[in-house]
Amino acid sequence: MISELPWFVPALAAPLFWVGCNYVDQYILRRYFPARSQTYVYVSALCSVFWLAAIAIAAPDVFDVAPASALSMMLVGALYVASLFPYSAAIRDKDISAVIPVYQIIPFMTLLIGYLLFGDKVASGDILAGGIIVLGAVGCIWDYEMRAFPVRPFVLTMLGSMLVAGYMVGIHALAQGWPWYKVLFWLLTTRMVFGVGGLAGASNRQSAIRSFRASGGRVIGLCVFEQGFSVAAQASLVVAMASAPSAFHVNLCSGLQPLFGLLGGIMLGHILPRHFNKAKADRTLAARSIGIACIFGGLFLLLRP
Q1: By the 8 A CB rule, do 249 and 7 touch?
Q2: DSSP code per residue over 43-65
Q3: Would you tell me the crossing angle of helices 247-254 and 218-243 to the nearest 10 degrees?
Q4: Angular region, 9: left φ>0, alpha ψ -120 to 50, beta rest
Q5: pTM assigned to the model
Q6: Could you tell me the CA-to-CA distances from 227 to 13, 51, 52, 152, 235 in Å, in that order?
Q7: Is residue 115 a contact partner of residue 121, using CB atoms and an 8 Å limit?
Q8: What is the chain's alpha carbon radius of gyration, rounded to the nearest angstrom?
Q9: 81-138: per-residue pLDDT in tens?
Q10: How far apart are CA 53 and CA 46, in angstroms?
């Protein structure tokens, strides 16, 4: 039934779910993993086991795939898991509304990957559109209160964007003909494997145990909750990628994520000021709004027929 929806419905749902995931991630990181963001990546990844079990029970045919196909999907999933490390470090230190816009350079990176790997054409207009997206992203992440450019968060988000771009190219290439839940199952399997491997290390394991005790066990429930947003977002993305005319159409809808993130930050900053920063200057909100508009305009120019 889900796979019968028009492609733009899951494509629009995905950025909404991602924003929910972003803010839950930031809350957990700042409260329970302020010094070791990589440990949170492993703990969150291990919590995939709950959703893996749910999918396997609901759809036992997830195992009816060729081993080579499952391995290929897991390798693509590894790119996504790798992107979580720079992402987690970035959102721990910077506001979501500043970090998310940088990820909108992914469509341009996707185009460049297609050019390098498959010989796709890149026109001068595409380069111009990519430049507009980058300028908009810089305008969003710039620290207007400190009047400084946050180099480290920008580099981290750019690295994460490159990895996600490779992931999305892989999904679009491999998801054709696959039921969305099978794709999601094998992608989540990769996350679980990373979680087990990461927590096998003594330092990560000890950090996870300390966070578990400090939270009274709540961190596990929060991670499962965060995974719920992530699963919903990835399922929406897989469905959209499998049915959309191209990956670029889905990425255009994803261009609304910075707007959703900005609005979510404003609301959470007023509702939960202890855990989410409010924009302290009107110029910050104005500049980020202009940056978001530039990003969406650049995406439109990049993705239009």
Answers
A1: yes
A2: HHHHTHHHHHHHHHHH-GGGG-S
A3: 130
A4: alpha
A5: 0.85
A6: 16, 8, 11, 27, 12
A7: yes
A8: 19
A9: 999 999 999 998 888 888 989 988 888 888 888 888 777 778 888 899 999 999 999 9
A10: 12
